[in-house]
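Worked example

This section walks through a single chain of length 281. The input is the sequence exactly as stored; nothing has been trimmed or padded.
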Amino acid sequence: MKAAKKAPAKPAKKKAKKQDAGRVEKLSGKDYESRMARLHEELVQLQLWVQKTGAKVCIIFEGRDGAGKGGTIQALTERVSPRIFRVVALPAPTEREKSQMYIQRYLPYLPAAGEIVIFDRSWYNRAGVERVMGFASETQVQEFLQMAPAVEKAIVHSGVIVLKYWLEVTPEEQTKRLQSRIDDGRKLWKLTGMDLKSYSRWYDYSRARDDMFTATDTAWAPWFVVRSDDKKRARLNVVQHVLRRIPYKRSEPEKIKLPKRQKAHGYVSPDYPYKYIDAPK
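Given that input, the structure is written out below as tokens.
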């Protein structure tokens, strides 16, 4: 008598499908470039609108070390004019600046008409790195958290569109990215002593972030959180969100035609020993 054949086991497949259900398919480089190219065209339209209307836009990027702020800012600015999209990344304050009202050093960089200013870290340093690393007293931090919403309300009431983004990365992804800075000579400039010191203070930064959100996530200047473990998707999401939050209008493109080039009228290239740069061998 032949033994009955066992039915193929299927639970493993079902389990695998269940595990994969929440995963987002990784974005290919080609797909990313295609989507970003379309968004870059819209950013040019935004730039034209800002120039035409005299709008003022302030975009703030904060987040954990290695969360991808630099790459996101580059995605926003790589196809537009640096005279319109200005990036502000201030160094450590001087002794004179330390004696000023805290937010004073940032105010001169706020946008004038026809400008978009992007802060690569901002006055929120006081609520983050300065607090965690002990560069500011708890009294100074609490004073800042109490003052910031009122200052931002004044900025918004002056006609500035304020967008605040916090880039969040998981501990595992942060470790991976910071380690890559150590291992890759091209990325060493991205790794500072402060990065190494702050790496071990994950939960201190989490508490500081939570307090900051509680005090400064306002109706007039809310915080928007970006999951950035997937850098490509994070950049696309931020650019899309910026475009949605600013009420710009597209301009009808003018028909452009190159004019005729002038005639030589006897001009002859001189026999000059130009120092041409050869192509790499």
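What to look for: The domain at 29-93+106-245 is CATH 3.40.50.300 (Rossmann fold).
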